Amino acid sequence: MIKAVIDTNVIVSAYITKNLEAATSKVWEAVLQSKLTPIYNEEILNEYSDVLHREKFGIPEHLIKGALDKIVTNGVRGERILSDEFFPDPKDVVFYEVALSKEDAYLVTGNIKHFPKKPIVVTPAEMLEILQREGIL
Predict the structure, then answer these.
(1) What does the CA dihedral 133, 8, 66, 62 come to, rounded to 10 degrees?
(2) What is the pTM of this model?
(3) CA angle 74, 116, 127 (to 5 degrees)
(4) What is the pLDDT of residues 3-61, one digit of tens each?
(5) What does the pLDDT average to over 64-82?
(6) 1 closest CA partner among 35, 29, 39, 27
(7) Which of 36, 78, 77, 45 has the alpha carbon at shortest distance from 64?
(8) Strand order from edge to edge, sheet including 76-77
(9) DSSP-H helix ranges across the chain
């Protein structure tokens, strides 16, 4: 099973897009269908909750609760592995450091430029390619 930390922007995009064929939608669908195992910790769950509850996104409470429940139920808890990499936004560090805690894990983000250029940091489109190559999708 492929494991990945899903950046908040991927989840928000999946919920607000009208395009169900968008890579963000497909990645989030893979999480909801237990085809992609999310990695999380309390900081990440809190970030998800805070951002998904923003009024400007208009995401219904039942979808937010369902998303958080699915992540905890089907995901794996990770711990931060401290990194000395530079991050333009300090709030992004936790996503990267938790991804480092699991072997062969990824960080899926729509903001690739916010993270170090490492093979574990992938866009939603790249994650779809990985899932397809592995025969998961």
Answers:
(1) -140
(2) 0.94
(3) 40
(4) 999 999 999 999 999 888 999 999 999 999 999 999 999 999 999 999 999 999 999 99
(5) 96
(6) 35
(7) 45
(8) 76-77, 37-40, 3-6, 106-108, 121-122
(9) 8-16, 23-32, 42-52, 61-74, 93-99, 124-133
